[in-house]
Amino acid sequence: MDADSVLARLRSMASRKNVEGMARFGIRTTNTLGISLWDLRKVAKEIGTDHSLALALWSSGIHEARMLASFVDDPARVTEVQMDAWVRGIDSWDVCDTVTTDLFYRTAIARRKALEWSRSREEFVKRAGFAMMAGMAWHDKGAEDAAFLPFLDAIAREATDDRNFVRKAVNWALRNIGKRNPALNRKAVATAKRIQKIDSRAARWIASDALRELTGEAVQRRVRVRAPGGGKKSVPTPNRGSARARSTLRSRRR
After folding, report:
1. pLDDT tens by residue, 178-237
2. For residues 22-43, b (16+ Cβ closer than 10 Å) or e, as one string?
3. What is the CATH number of domain 91-227?
4. pTM of the predicted structure, to 2 decimals
5. Residue 134 and residue 202: Cα distance in Å, rounded?
6. Domain assignments of the chain as residue spans, ordered by start
7. Any residues with CB less than 8 A from the CB of 60 and at least 6 apart, and which?
């Protein structure tokens, strides 16, 4: 498919009612069509992998076209220049989370970029860094525990940022790291307890919310199952506490 035909199809799927619903969840509605994530994924499945098309879709500036670009792009062909350009152009939390947890986390430089972006002063660039940490913690099952220790340091360092979209991503990353296995659960809990002592409202919220989940019976049972010799792996559960806007988004912290 070429970009024009894909964009025409997306426009034919637009729903004003869905756009109105998205606004209630803090999703930017400029250049937004109101297409469900389910329907976007069906279109992506028909398209397959197409890097050139992904670039054209992103350049359109249309909200759903950018989401679709994240689904059809080829992570092996994504460059650092592209990653930086796309992240700087993000203006909505759902696009931020989709591009990082569906596409960018699969690139060879994902860990380096996550740490780099975590230091940014720009709200959505910084969120992208922590959202990508959350994505890698959830999806990269083969990663060694040591790969996540620098993320915990970044989480502790940035826990005082009280901007809504940042602090929730910091919390999301901390919780996902702590759900991987018993060893990382202990390290994430220790990080949360250290953050809890900081004289900052944002830090206290990040820590207390993470501790509530990471020390709870459900997560403790899950990480015990994931421990070596612990038996069958549990089925991943959605990110707790998030809202579903028009049935479009996987669970995450807004």
Report:
1. 999 999 999 999 999 999 999 999 999 999 999 999 999 999 999 988 776 544 433 333
2. beebebeeeebbbbbbeebeeb
3. 1.25.40
4. 0.88
5. 18
6. 1-74, 91-227
7. 3, 7, 66
